[in-house]
Amino acid sequence: MTSEDAAAAPLQSFDGTIWSAVDKALSGISAQPERGVQDVIVHIPRDEVIRGLRALKTNADIAFDYLRCLTCVDNEGDGMDVVYMLYSTTKGHNLTVKAHLDANDLHLDTATTVWRAANWYEREVMEMFGVRFRNHPDPRTLLMPEDLTDTFPLRKDHPLAEIEVLQGEGIAWATEKSV
To answer: 79 CB contacts (<8 Å, ≥6 apart)?
Structure first.
């Protein structure tokens, strides 16, 4: 979320959420909250995201000690969002953190310095979306052939992306005919 988006967005209430504790933990870090369906979503600029993730993990009041998932969202020409889904095993709450990457600069520092589990997730995001993680300890491929570096299967512009639409249409047609 850009600062212009945040300024244009209507004021959201964060009553009943953990936002005040998260905001306190992220003191000195640029963070923009958004109310999600199940939890708070925090947008942190790419150059501050690792510092923010470390603060969220080490702050005793919120203690996000578990990286549930790390994935990516392809916003096509608008770039990509790297998404970190966090959980506190001691406090029992969730948080989603997003870092936006411009389409022409898909690089981000590695989160393996915060959670070792980020290793596999970042390798998957690298292969499937083309995001490169600086200082990653093991950037080998996981799923794709090592020599296949010019195509990223989960990007919306992938040549086979349209097959899902065609398959979905066929399934819907078959379901309607059988009813």
So the answer is: 100, 101, 102, 103, 106
